[in-house]
Amino acid sequence: MEKKPVEIIIKPGGESYIRSGLAKSAFKESIYQGFSVSYYIPHISEVQKLVRELQLWKRKISPHLYQAHDSFLMFYKPYHLVYSSLKKSNKLSPLWLKIVTQAVNDEKFYDLNKITQTSTELSIISATKFLLRLIKEADIDEIQRKYDQMQKILQQHIPDMERNRIENELKDIERLFTTAVKTGIEEAVKSAQEYKEGRETVESAVSSLLGSGGLGYTKEALSIWSFLRHPDMFRKKVNILRHAKIFFNRFMTITPSSAVHQHVENIYGGVNGASRMISERQLPDVFPSEMAMTQLGDVGRALFAVKLVQRQLTVYKRLASIKPVVFLDKSGSMAEIYTGSEKVPKISVASGLALALYRKLDADIYLFDTEVEKVKPENVIKTLLEISADGGTDIDPVLEEIMRIGKKDYTYIIISDGITEANEDVLERFRKNELTKNTKLILIPPAGVGDRYRWVELLRGYKNVFFARDVASFEESVKEILR
User: Fold this and answer.
1) Are 53 and 191 part of one and the same domain?
2) Is residue 139 one of the residues assigned to a domain?
3) HSE toward the beta carbon, residue 52, CA cutoff 13 A
4) In angstroms, rounded to a whole number, what is the distance separating the alpha carbons of residues 227 and 380?
């Protein structure tokens, strides 16, 4: 039998505690608030790794365990506990105690702590930014040794001139770290607030776009590692999701009422008028006999809940007057900003439409670049969070998929900013297929109306090509398609 790894328990005051250097901590044991030191070690180690990896200068310095320990805990623990747990003195590391005390007493620390306390992610970010600033200003260990030596010299009998010189040097060291601490707290405030607001923005957007649930992968896509390593990319992802929500709501509003009109098919027609539920959006169509279970007390409501979760409820079968199939270009160029007065990512506008049509008209959604794949709304969100600057497009798989679906009463909508010519064999089969008159193309810059690809010319013959130069013309194109 494989043995489980033995957890090393570090007890305050014990041999392992002293050997680890934690005796140099600026905090008393009360900072742990009943938990063991080992409970916090994974988070403290994360701070150490991040600080080392994020140093842009040549020399890579890893903060000591006690430095990462104190930096994490002073943000993670509530202010009253942090303040009351500060040591009055620390002979092993007096300069470090001064640094931490200055940080805790900084006017901005109190407000920051209200944001970071109990949040592992925000505390790690704040501790990392704080330590990065300290290390960038000076080698803490080297100055600590110099500081200790000068303190010892001052305890001896030395000439007044020498004493004054040393005291001035000590003040210079303290001023250096006073400035570094203040700047470090300011940078921690900025980073913690940006990350918190960014995550909240994304989670709000995902919740709107998908309904309840679906937030599991956002933590990975918007991790503290990606935020600290690539802050510009983090901001770009937040911006994409924020605008996707905006345009989802806009397209939910502007979709013509005639397009969302539905009617019940064969209500009294037995099995021909019924089907199994596939979405919670069908709750209004649940058979009265199924809804009656909710009136049978706790047991009935529990049974109804089980059938709802397992999608076993019987609903009236409905037909929409339009059944869209959306092919959304997910190539890297779609993440770029749309030209025009509204500076928004192109992928946000396009995905907002796709998800609105899914919600209102039960549209099928396909993502494509060099390949095409039918996806669920969750995959669209994942694409928005992971889209990168590379990748091209290939129209052949899209045309092939339209022909494979083959439904003549569907409306096929292709949205792209960089189209290619179709293969001659694919184009010939597509030309002979009556689906061409139901296939609409929305072209976003830099794809131009002057593109004379043969398959585009074929669609243009049916007036099915729409050049969306800006957001306003994109919306007009959508209205025309759904009219």
Assistant:
1) yes
2) yes
3) 13
4) 21
Residues 26/90, Cβ–Cβ less than 8 Å: yes
- Is residue 78 a contact partner of residue 130, using CB atoms and an 8 Å limit? no
- Indicate whether 306 and 363 sit together in one domain: no
Nearest to 178 by CA among 88, 86, 102: 102
Q: What is the pTM of this model?
A: 0.78
Which of 125-129, 277-281, 421-425 is the least confident region? Answer: 277-281
The dihedral formed by the CA atoms of 342, 347, 349 and 353, expressed in degrees to the nearest 10: 180
- Angstrom distance (rounded) from CA 310 to CA 232: 42
Domain, as residue range, for 389 = 321-482
Using one digit for the tens of pLDDT, what is the confidence trace for 40-89?
999 999 999 999 999 876 667 788 999 999 999 999 999 999 999 999 99
Residue 389 pLDDT class (50, 70, 90 cuts): low
In a domain, 252, yes or no: no
Which single residue is written with the structure tokens 């009136």? Answer: 295
Cα gap 198→217, rounded to integer Å: 15
Distances (CA, A) of 77 to 103, 108, 219, 315, 393: 14, 16, 22, 52, 50
Are residues 371 and 332 in contact, defined by beta-carbon separation less than 8 angstroms? Answer: no
Shared domain for 332 and 315, answered yes or no, is no
pLDDT band at 479 (very low <50, low <70, confident <90, very high): very high
Inter-residue contact 87 to 168 (CB < 8 Å): no
Q: Is residue 166 part of a domain?
A: yes
Do 399 and 461 fall into the same domain?
yes
Strands of 372-375's sheet in order across? 372-375, 364-368, 323-329, 410-416, 439-443, 465-467
Torsion sign across C-alpha atoms 362, 367, 372, 374:
negative
Tell me if 5 is assigned to some domain.
no
CATH number of the domain at 369, please: 3.40.50.410
